[in-house]
Amino acid sequence: MFVRLANKGDGPLLLDALWEAFNWRGDESFTRAQLLADPQIGHYVDGWQRDTDFGAVAVGDDGAPLGAAWCRLFEESSGGYGFVAPDVPELTMAVFVGNRGQGIGRQLLCAIVDRAREKGHAAESERRG
Questions:
Q1: Is the separation of the CB atoms in 92 and 99 below 8 Å?
Q2: Of 23, 40, 60, 77, which is the most buried if we count CB atoms within 10 A?
Q3: Which fold has domain 2-128?
């Protein structure tokens, strides 16, 4: 298993991960079409990859995706469920069923934190000085 940076071609994969995150209990409470139709949800993947978007994808030895984590910036008027401020990226993350409990989420989160720092996003304690 390895973690790679997300790229422009990962939009469909991120939609699958978003679907997985919203249906984490194993039921299909939401379809992909429903997620995309809801502006407060669909904006997490719509138009991927903007200049300010960044993410990471966990991939198995066979090349199959195991999970993904990604961040997007939003204005206050269009912020999502994790909105804090326009300069604080919102995080979305999912590990696909069958791959959970193996530390993949931890590796994705570490990769995202590293990438956020590279892009100049500081932790709250670093923001306050």
A1: no
A2: 23
A3: Aminopeptidase (3.40.630)
pLDDT tens per residue across all 129 residues of the chain: 999 999 999 999 999 999 999 998 878 889 999 999 999 899 999 999 999 999 999 999 999 999 999 999 999 888 887 888 999 999 999 999 889 999 999 999 999 999 999 999 976 555 555
DSSP 89: P
| Spatial separation of the C-alpha atoms in residues 38 and 36, rounded to whole Å | 6
- Distance CA(65)–CA(58), nearest Å, equals 6
Domain boundaries defined on the chain: 2-128
Q: Is the preceding peptide bond at 49 cis, omega within 30 degrees of 0?
A: yes
